[in-house]
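Ticket #434: bound-state structure for shikimate-3-phosphate.
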Amino acid sequence: MSAKEFKKGLEVCAGSAFEIEIDAIATDKSISHRCAIFSLLSNKPSKIKNFLKAEDTLNSLGIAAALGAKAQWEGDTLTITPPSSLSEPDDVLDCGNSGTTIRLMSGFLSSIDGFFVLTGDKYLRRRPMKRVAEPLRSVGAKIDGRDGGNFAPLAIRGAKLDGITFDSKISSAQVKSALILAALNAKSPSVISEPELSRDHTERMLVGMGADIKVADKIYVSPMSKPLEPLNMSVPSDPSSAFFFAVAAAITEGAKVTLKNLTLNPTRVEAFVVLQKMGAKVEFVEKENVYEPIGDIIVEGAKLKAVEVSENISWLIDELPALSIAMAVAEGESVVKNAKELRVKESDRITTVMTNLRAFGIECEEFEDGYKIRGGELKSAHVTSFGDHRLAMSFAIASLKCGGKIDGFEAVSTSFPNFVQLLSKITQVREYEL
Ligand code: S3P
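RESOLUTION: The complex was predicted; output attached.
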């Protein structure tokens, strides 16, 4: 008998107006990954408060441990003590569902001595790795993988690399970060660029740790002459996770949500700006700046109108599935363009989002690089997550309008383990076994 594809489902009842303050949004996934990986660049312990305890980020931490780091928790503070020299793991390194883990680790491990095999779940093993493997190979990295080296498992024989000069054709923080990590250990300086700035946590955090990285027209990286300073930080909440509740409020007239202590990094909050353009009331309240601006976002529901999204796509790429729910209830036809990257996320998010919207009774059209959604009345439906955490949560939010069921809800544990608990504060939910 073959194993069942999905284990759990979530039934969500239609909701009504709510007013809520949420200070328990999952902490930032991108920043937590970087904390686990960058701590290996120091020779002193890094102290991280509120590291995200979700499957994806625990995979990064597990790999840091397999390389010799010691992870110790004391309450909500994680101390990562790097080894005096990294050890060669005696088994494959499992990245689970996490693209960030496999791509950043590819860059990091390519440039250090040893043999490493990176793999992941069936969804990750379908995602393209050539985007990091090719530029790394061009400076001497020995990376092999399935189908001409494009798919995991990736086998890496690490060694010192030449400096990298690379103008990336795609704006991807994972590609950029993988190359910066390799560049820090290279024989000579590197220059890296991307078409539009993608999320810049890597640059901010590494500069904060003392790395010689200059960000101007391009990113100029000098190899490390000594270990970096350790990290000492508290991870803010994740705006990509918070966005599900922002949409919940935006599509419910009379609703209001205050989302506390999020990173307000402009490369991460663009989807909230789009929601504002659609007519929702959105307020940003900056409170502090530690590596990044941090503060609250308040969203109030309104009658939404259609919008066209075609710029700064990398600043809202993860939020597009949830934004599609706001588009589905807005008046008029919304269009998303230049978003081909959606096809190589945890699922092909153009096809999977359209499939589920149609099941909810919404008319939409798929393009190679985006889609068109005609706003209308959502009708109750029973859909699947396609194993994609952001699909699961987006359609749980859609269900607030009309009720709905989503199979494969266990996928949310990759980024937002307490999502259901928070959702249950604004509507009735029921988990079921499959
Ligand atoms: C991430 C970068 C983005 C994003 C992903 C997290 C990161 O991916 O979609 O969820 O932490 O660097 P790409 O680099 O593929 O755009």
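RESOLUTION NOTES: Residues 389-402 form the longest helix (14 residues).
TICKET STATUS: resolved
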